[in-house]
Automatic annotation (TrEMBL):
<dbReference type="Pfam" id="PF17652">
    <property type="entry name" value="Glyco_hydro81C"/>
</dbReference>
<dbReference type="InterPro" id="IPR005200">
    <property type="entry name" value="Endo-beta-glucanase"/>
</dbReference>
<feature type="signal peptide">
    <location>
        <begin position="1"/>
        <end position="19"/>
    </location>
</feature>
<keyword id="KW-0378">Hydrolase</keyword>
<dbReference type="InterPro" id="IPR040451">
    <property type="entry name" value="GH81_N"/>
</dbReference>
<keyword id="KW-0119">Carbohydrate metabolism</keyword>
<keyword id="KW-0732">Signal</keyword>
<dbReference type="GO" id="GO:0009986">
    <property type="term" value="C:cell surface"/>
</dbReference>
<dbReference type="GO" id="GO:0042973">
    <property type="term" value="F:glucan endo-1,3-beta-D-glucosidase activity"/>
</dbReference>
<dbReference type="GO" id="GO:0000272">
    <property type="term" value="P:polysaccharide catabolic process"/>
</dbReference>
<dbReference type="Pfam" id="PF03639">
    <property type="entry name" value="Glyco_hydro_81"/>
</dbReference>
<keyword id="KW-0326">Glycosidase</keyword>
<dbReference type="GO" id="GO:0052861">
    <property type="term" value="F:endo-1,3(4)-beta-glucanase activity"/>
</dbReference>
<protein>
    <recommendedName>
        <fullName>glucan endo-1,3-beta-D-glucosidase</fullName>
        <ecNumber>3.2.1.39</ecNumber>
    </recommendedName>
</protein>
<comment type="similarity">
    <text>Belongs to the glycosyl hydrolase 81 family.</text>
</comment>
<feature type="domain" description="Glycosyl hydrolase family 81 N-terminal">
    <location>
        <begin position="198"/>
        <end position="518"/>
    </location>
</feature>
<dbReference type="GO" id="GO:0071555">
    <property type="term" value="P:cell wall organization"/>
</dbReference>
Length: 879
């Protein structure tokens, strides 16, 4: 069976055609002007008009008016870069500071301040459209035929002798920390132009170092800085004087499974088309009396796992409150340095109880019972001055009349968390140090949390399901029974530890360029009749106009075309055993790649120092932020550059003499842009794309979004990791190779929890599993669609392409069988009449290689239908 599977790979490699249509450009748009945006129509429970609210300017920061969160009309209300959205914050409620009747009593648990009358809490808003700004809504695959070549390649009279290259990690410990060293600290190549500006301005950022663009906190420096940020399990948002509280502080929210909103059921699967969670709920707001209409939000210490938000009374003032935000934090922590705390809520206080005595020396504890039935615990650790003494003013406000020095921490109690929070309060994380090793097929990586606050206190942090399943025994022993629901990552579990260590025992260190499976390893043998059959086709495919097909105005489509031809030359050389023909095609492929290495493509790359990265000049020249899928604004860089990195790895494998310092520097620049492992690299942020906390990448760059970061194609995410592994192997960078192999193993675990749904999946909502794939996964919702349409072959297929040797490692046979039976069996795949058909059957080779071989070999209906085989499906265990 593995031999047949390899034949499918070869045929798909040879028969593929390029997916390379350029995208339309708005020639009349002015420079750097954001378009109004396009919304992909997607059925929703409510229309935008029913669920939307509008952002109104506040004339009086001390008033808060009652609002019905579900009945306000839409307007556009954001600043640079503006993002169309389904809603913004509701207008403020009246009488924020108006006193209400408060009943104070003392009991065994402490001093209780009760509100005499209950109010109905605001239930939040549900974003009701798919935001597509920066997303191209046309197919990412071939939509027109490629002409047959007018002449065929002939092998050169003198052939190069290509020495064998070892592409597997030796079965011994490579280094003590594969994350320790930078790839390079050199400036990007001189032929990449320099710019000091960027179409998106750095809003409120005080750091001068390269800034991560695709991380969880970027809403704090985009748009009007008010879209939510997800820490998991909590989310936070700057209220900016708006919404249910009218606060100028930071609102904290946690959404339970019961608040989840499902879309209508798909007629074919019965599964809801999406699920989403309400936003704009202000359970607890941490603010200060000093904050008002002049408040300015700034960010600093922006890293791959963490960032700090500061709220200043005005642009010249020192911060009144600072919030160190770290993914997975057990508490949301605010640091006060003499400001007077305001504790606000849009859910309304039922009781506010101050505990008798101190839970720890210097720590005052409050219990906040809200009108939605939830309980929040608050701990105030004073580092100077007086303890925090809160007076309840009304249902939505408790305040301190005295300055406070120290930290205020807030956590939601699921019913069994009070003892744990009492134990962990006073300490908080400020960041994460990542380290790891690879030893043969075993990889380990560690999150060492940086700490502040009370010395000697152990941190409480929340772990996602893929962390929990990979913990080493010592870390697993620190897990507790305290659990909180996340939005799109299942149930998080509190861990009482200052570090976590995860282990992956199936690191695919032995994956190379050739067909591979987890059970059989690399498969090399092809029968002579099969070689002869494929050879004729391969010569035609290698004779296509490589230079024309790769000379496009898109880094994405150019990269896909280059990778297609790279995989063809690889198959001819390594599988068909015809190095002469491979060299003939390789000669032209190197010329095509040189156009980009020389930065002479239609839209050259620039290195811009505003954010710190290499990006397409397309938006600089056209003013359209969405051109080339938003590359200039750092959308999809790991997809785009991944294809180039893979191509370079193949060229270097087939011709080691090509590995010149200039070519190495160019490719490593692309690598550093998407996967720089070190803070010692002064030109690029760490880990722009891959999120080590979530276990997968985020594709969204500098675009403000209510649902925060997202990623559509999980398979192109794994492609970028595979490309890094192969480039590391060819270039001799063992650390890079090991990091990428470990990344693939982590992706396998996380994607099968969050993106790919076998029937045994217990992470995502049970009624959603029948969709089999996520579609688009956001931090706040999962939408079983794509940005370019909702056809079944699109939604499922975007998580298949490209098909490469690692594909059966991530997309397991059991999963592929269930997906095929659910959507494509009984002739349904045959009825797909586009390039997606080839992708579907290339994927089918994982479970039925013989049937897939029949499809591609011409023994079935496919004969002459070149359009059924898309270049991005190249991938076939080959591209």
């Amino acid at each position: 069976m593995d031999g047949i599977r390899m034949l499918v790979f070869v045929l798909l490699t040879i028969l593929q055609v390029s997916a390379s249509l350029p995208q339309p450009v708005d020639e009349e748009g002015s420079r750097f002007v954001q378009p109004t945006g396009r919304f992909l129509s997607s059925p929703r429970l409510n229309t935008p008009e029913e669920n939307a609210v509008v952002l109104f300017p506040r004339s009086d920061p001390d008033t808060l008016a009652s609002v019905d969160c579900a009945k306000t009309n839409i307007t556009s209300s954001v600043s640079s870069p503006p993002t169309p959205r389904a809603w913004s914050a509701p207008p403020p409620r009246a009488n924020l500071t108006a006193a209400a009747k408060v009943i104070t009593s003392s009991g065994p648990s402490g001093v209780v301040q009760s509100l005499a009358s209950a109010k109905t809490p605001c239930s939040g808003l549900v974003p009701s459209v798919l935001e597509t700004l920066g997303r191209v809504t046309s197919w990412p695959i071939l939509t027109s035929s490629i002409p047959r070549p007018t002449s065929l390649l002939s092998p050169p009279s003198i052939s190069l002798s290509v020495p064998p290259v070892s592409l597997t990690i030796p079965g011994k410990m490579l280094y003590q920390n594969i994350f320790a060293d930078p790839i390079s600290t050199d400036a990007p190549p001189a032929n990449i132009g320099r710019k000091q500006d960027h179409p998106v301005r750095r809003l409120g950022i005080t750091a001068s170092s390269p800034i991560p663009t695709n991380k969880f906190y970027s809403n704090f420096f985009l748009g009007n800085q008010t879209s939510p940020t997800w820490l998991h399990p909590y989310s936070v948002a700057w209220t900016r004087g708006q919404g249910a509280t009218g606060s100028w502080g930071l609102a904290i929210s946690h959404i339970g499974a019961g608040q989840r909103v499902f879309g209508e059921a798909d007629p074919s699967s019965g599964a809801p088309r999406y699920f989403v969670h309400p936003v704009g709920i202000h359970s607890v707001c941490l603010s200060a009396t000093e904050l008002g209409s002049g408040t300015v939000l700034t960010t600093e210490s922006l890293t791959d796992f963490s960032g700090q938000v500061s709220l200043r009374p005005n642009a010249q003032a020192s911060p009144a409150v600072q919030f160190p935000l770290v993914q997975g934090s057990g508490f949301v922590t605010a640091v006060y340095n003499g400001a007077r705390p305001l504790i606000q809520t849009g859910i309304f206080f039922r009781t506010v109880t101050r505990a008798n005595g101190e839970v720890k020396p210097g720590v005052t504890k409050y219990k906040l019972q809200l009108e939605d039935g939830t309980t929040w615990l608050m701990y105030a650790y004073r580092t100077g001055g007086q303890p925090l003494d809160l007076q309840v003013v009304n249902n939505g406000l408790a305040q301190s009349r005295e300055p406070f020095y120290g930290t205020i921490q807030v956590a939601k109690d699921p019913g069994n968390g009070e003892q744990l929070y009492d134990q962990a309060c006073g300490a908080y994380s400020t960041g994460v140090e990542l380290s790891g090793t690879v030893d043969g097929n075993k990889g380990m990586y560690t999150f060492a949390f940086k700490k502040a606050g009370i010395s000697g206190a152990t941190l409480v942090m929340f772990a996602l399901p893929h962390h929990q399943s990979s913990f080493v025994d010592a870390t697993r022993g620190k897990m507790t029974d305290v659990k909180l629901q996340t939005t799109t990552k299942g149930v998080a579990t509190a861990v009482l530890a200052d570090s976590w260590t995860m282990v992956e025992s199936q690191v695919p260190t032995d994956i190379g360029f050739l067909p591979w499976s987890p059970t059989a390893g690399t498969v090399r043998a092809i029968s002579d009749p099969t070689k002869a059959f494929i050879h004729n086709i391969s010569r035609q495919e290698a004779s296509q106009d490589i230079l024309k097909q790769t000379n496009l105005d898109s880094m994405y489509f150019s990269g896909k075309a280059l990778a297609k031809f790279a995989s063809i030359m690889l198959a001819i050389n390594d599988l068909l055993g015809d190095p002469g023909l491979a060299q003939a095609g390789l000669r032209t492929l190197k010329v095509a790649f040189a156009r980009f290495a020389d930065n002479a493509q239609q839209f050259p790359l620039v290195y811009e120092s505003a954010w710190g990265g290499v990006a397409s000049s397309a938006t600089y020249e056209t003013g359209d932020p969405g051109v080339d899928f938003g590359n200039t604004l750092y959308n999809d860089h790991h997809f785009h550059f991944g294809y180039f990195i893979y191509t370079a790895a193949v060229i270097g494998h087939l011709d080691p003499s090509w590995m010149t310092p200039a070519n190495r520097a160019y490719v490593n620049t692309l690598v550093r842009d998407i996967a720089n492992p070190s803070s010692r690299d002064p030109y690029f942020p760490m880990w722009r794309s891959f999120d080590w906390f979530h276990g997968h990448s985020w594709a969204k760059g500098l675009f403000d979004s209510l649902d925060s970061k997202d990623q559509e194609s999980s398979s192109e995410d794994t492609m970028h990791a595979y490309a890094l592994k192969m480039w590391g192997a060819v270039s001799g960078d063992r650390n890079m190779e090991a990091r990428a192999a470990l990344t693939l193993a982590v992706q396998r675990r996380s994607l099968n929890a969050y993106y790919l749904y076998h029937s045994s999946n217990t992470v995502q909502p049970r009624n959603f599993i029948a969709n089999k794939v996520a579609g688009i996964l956001f931090e706040n919702k999962i939408d079983h669609t794509t940005y370019f349409g909702g056809n079944t072959e699109y939604v499922q297929g975007i998580h298949m392409l490209p098909l490469l040797p690692y594909t059966p490692f991530v997309r397991t046979p059991a999963f592929v069988r269930e997906e095929w039976d659910a959507f494509f069996s009984a002739g349904r795949a045959q009825r797909v009449a586009s390039g997606w058909k080839g992708i579907l059957f290339g994927n089918y080779a994982t479970i039925d290689p013989r049937a897939a071989y029949e499809f591609f070999s011409g023994r079935s209906e496919w004969v002459g239908r070149v359009g059924w085989v898309d270049g991005s499906g190249r991938a076939g265990r080959g591209i």
